[in-house]
Amino acid sequence: MRERPGSKGFTLIELLVVIAIIAILAAILFPVFARARENARKSTCQSNLKQMATAALQYAQDYDETMVRVNIFLGGSTYYGWVWLLQPYVKNTEIFTCPSRPSAKWNGSATTYANFGYGFFGIQNVAHGGPSLAARSLAEIKAPADVVMFSDSS
Question: What SS3 class is residue 38?
């Protein structure tokens, strides 16, 4: 193949056309990538919530079918939170950090039980007038499908 005399590269118009095509493709694909990333976070969050619920039920099995407490009092001003109580039942403590809020990471402290992305509804009056979940027997929960145990918000 022979080169044209004086032709050693692309013309300015050819370069601008290629750049314009790349910019249009990027503008089309960036929202798709952002949606995929958010869907991945949502999936991770659902998995974390399921693992926390499984850990809470394992805890209940070990403690005569009694739900995990919000915290336990050790004396003085020391309380150990529900995350610390569930920690032996999970393989990875990263499940306690919300993927959409990584700055609010659980610090591994036994005394931390709030403000890290997830919430345990043992504190709340969850059953529209019923008692909370904390330290209740599993048999006392009349409609378990209607009760929220964990949420992705503190």
Answer: helix
C-alpha 32/C-alpha 36 separation (Å) is 6
Nearest in space to 110 (alpha carbons), one of 77, 85, 84: 84
CA-only gyration radius of the chain, Å: 26
Whether this prediction's pTM lies above 0.90 is answered by no
Determine contact, residues 92/131, Cβ cutoff 8 Å: no
Extended beta strands in the chain, E state: 71-75, 78-81, 119-120, 150-151
The per-residue pLDDT for range 131-154, each reduced to its tens digit, is 567 777 888 878 777 777 877 765
Please give the full DSSP string across 69-83, using - where no structure is assigned: PSEEEEETTEEEEHH
> Element (H or E) spanning 43, and its range?
helix 12-62
The predicted-structure confidence for 53-83, as pLDDT tens digits, reads as follows 899 899 989 988 888 877 777 777 767 777 8
